[in-house]
Amino acid sequence: MMRGAVTLLLGAMLFDQVLGEYGMAHVSDQGKNKGKDYCILFNSQWAHLPQDLGKASRLQIHDLTASVLCSPSEVPAGGFTNRIPMVLRGNCTFYEKVRLAQINGAKGLLIVSRDRLTPPAGNRSQYEEIDIPVALLSYTDMLDISKTFGKGRDVAMYAPHEPVFDYNMVIIFLMAVGTVAVGGYWAGSRDVKKRYMKHKRDDGAETQDEETVDVTPIMICVFVVMCCSMLVLLYFFYDHLVYMIIGIFCLAASIGLYSCLSPFVRRIPFGKCRIPENNLPYCHKRPQVRMLLLSVFCVTVSVIWGVFRNEDQWAWVLQDTLGIAFCLYMLKTIRLPTFKACTLLLLVLFVYDVFFVFVTPFLTKSGESVMVEVAAGPSDSSTHEKLPMVLKVPRLNFSPLALCDRPFSLLGFGDILVPGLLVAYCHRFDIQVQSSQVYFVACTVAYGIGLLITFVALALMQMGQPALLYLVPCTLLTSLGVALWRRELAMFWTGSGFVKEMPQPPLAMTPINCKRSSDPPTKEQLASPALQAAEEATNQSEEKSPGEAKNQSD
Fold first, then answer.
1. Which listed residue, of 56, 120, 128, 411, carries a Cα 20 to 30 Å from 375's Cα?
2. Domain end call among 448, 471, 494
3. What are the tens digits of pLDDT across the range 457-486?
């Protein structure tokens, strides 16, 4: 499930590629300054909208939502002089509606749609004939307008400029690169440390590090097939499966949070006592009180997020915290044993990502990318739930366009985990060949550069991007280049520098300086078993009487 939502989606960039542009309808009471903005989707080829609200014409709304305005008989007596009619979508074309509105004096047209907002399209001759703006408004917003402002309503339609750069990009960049760096470093150090020594634990089985899983080519193929199947199922049965994904995330995130916090909790000098003998599940091994409390805390955090996951003001903080913990846990548990396995995994998921983002729009009826549709949540979903397998940060530019169902920027867990596994492999190899972390640093920097290139592609192409399209070449080619430069490609490719059991480092023998008996022993001498034995023998010989010493010499 870590590839459940792997495409980087910056909410500010999800414009329709051909005709649709997002704008705002500012509705207010007649004669009053206060008002409220509502998202609209318009086509600038019908007519342009001003970027500034102050330059937009404020006109009265003519509520005709009982009609679809598809025939002249639906035009009220007196027409729509200097007003903007608001009508339902209906079965006729956009051109028929806007033409009827224009010839009857309307200065614009608002079309209320019960379904997802689609850009109002037409042909070239129709665009040249019409000179009033036409925009689509959601049915929910129409109900809110009627409830909030009653009958006397003015509307001003405008299209504010959308900033190319949003400061939440910086936050997402730091979270992603930080997670990859910390997770890769932690996973590599932990793995190599376990190869050198076996520690005696006083906490029993609960302090044992989690078992690592070596990824094989067969596992990679099965994993990709499962990802493809799950993504297609989510596309067709999103409302039925989204709750299952939310439940899986809550469980996995609580385990990940426990795994990340347990090393710090074990340093706390309190709560070492164990619970009494019992037959309860997961408690029959008598865990320590502090670890039991940590488990309760992690589960509570996950449950709180699950209950309040749709609270946009603060729930994203919990989701990001749980998501980072989950990614660190996965990086620590899953291990790629060779660079060959790294290359296979990254290349297969590279093709997977590109296919479901760029190719599937030609295969779907709506023309939408399967990956983008699932990652952002279908607009026609009855549950309005979002997949939690992403890091999300609210937009910080405070643009009114944030109302257009695009208030967050998202980065899928897969765009962190997949390159992160390569970073972890590089760090383990660094420690093995004692290369001063050159592989680890180079791969981490390459990941950051690949993420920056993704941001640039978003700004230039104005559409959701498969982040692995840029991350995979950057990290793979950089790691390969470092191996070639250091002439270690054969060892790096096969992982032959790793052995299952590393020999213990030899003891460093230092000469023993003769000291007077009055000189106190040094700390090193006291810690050496050989010196301690020699000291005990010396003490025993000094305690013997001169006669005993003479008899022994005879």
1. 120
2. 494
3. 887 876 777 889 999 999 999 999 999 999
